[in-house]
Amino acid sequence: MTTNDQLFGRAKNAIPGGVNSPVRAYGSVGGTPRFLVSAKGAYVTDAEGREYVDLVASWGPAILGHAHPGTVEAVQQAAARGLSFGASTPGETELAELVKQRVSVDGDGPIEKLRMVSTGTEATMTAIRLARGYTGRDLLVKFAGHYHGHSDSLLAEAGSGVATLAMPGSAGITAETAAQTLVLPYNDLDAVRRAFDEHSERIAAVIVESAAANMGVLAPERGFNRALAQITQSHGALLIVDEVLTGFRVGSAGWWGLEASKVVPDGAGWKPDLITFGKVIGGGMPLAALGGRREVMDFLAPLGPVYQAGTLSGNPLAVAAGIATLRAATPSVYESLNRTASVISAATSDALSAEGVAHTVQRAGNLFSFAFTDTAPRNYDDVRAQDVFRYAPFFHAMLDAGVTLPPSVFEAWFVTAAHDERAVGRILDALPAAAKAAAAG
Ligand code: PMP
To answer: Do 338 and 323 lie in a common domain?
Structure first.
């Protein structure tokens, strides 16, 4: 048997850091990453043959559970018809129509047209180029701790792996590019108003995670997104809502849908100009998208002057996986995800409290995480001020007990519809020892 240690050793000689995405390297929690060979339902299996209950879910896409039979079958059938054509397929329109129809409340939604790409990074990168092309302006506003992928303009004070590695940004980005992104504190509307007072004629767009989930979970304060929509509109700028992580995960119509349908209070009555999707929309295959108002979307080539393209865009296997996943993600799936999230988050909080570990439960729909602090955070500075050191021992105690958590305190925990009583039971059994480890720090 080849061990995880041996595989990591070999990987490090062939791949920078041994990984193809930085957080996978366990940098902030230490130890050897598990090399996975298969996954089914709520479980993943590593190269040593050890099975874990998984709370990463491929960072979101595996909403139905890993290797969901309907999705796998759809991909197998698509594969048999051809892997990639570089031409239009009927499935792309079917998926676009499905997304338009799902992301609406009472028949009204923000998406008139949708363009498919392969990653969330491409979706947000294209959305900001489109916003600049449409408005003829150059500046972009983002919020500290929000992650929108790794394009040059969006890495300033970003969440996810950038937060995990405590990097201010990334080398290799020109000062000119960095200067075109204004980074503001989250949940601070005065800061947004001040930025517009100063640069009204220059701001092309505000980009925001619909509910922040890349600095741990941090839901917007009531009415924040709606206020952003009002401010951007009154200044002729666009609002780009990034639902790469929340879209089709926290509900059928994403976080926007929870606000529009008043499940989240004080949030109804607004629409983003552009909205980005990734993760669940591709059902575990590389697929992402941006959508929005017809007038703006038609600025994209071939109709308009903003160029964007992709050899594998709308790939037939990815489209098949996306359609199968979205069709299977029924309202009852979201109810079950909410219940599972409540059970696991409450049990984790109880276990931490029993050991006297100060923490807050961070929740946005079925997404949750824990911040090791006794004051509810509002923004990235607050999140960073927590007792970060408590997470590594907690993480490793869970791993030793057969539960894979995200290897960073700055990431959300992801449940799936396959987390049944047995899987949840294994998580609950592991919590007391993990909470003890967190208390010992
Ligand atoms: N936006 C958000 C909100 C995300 O969470 C992510 C990825 N975690 C991205 C964009 C980038 O997506 P991708 O990793 O597919 O490029």
So the answer is: no
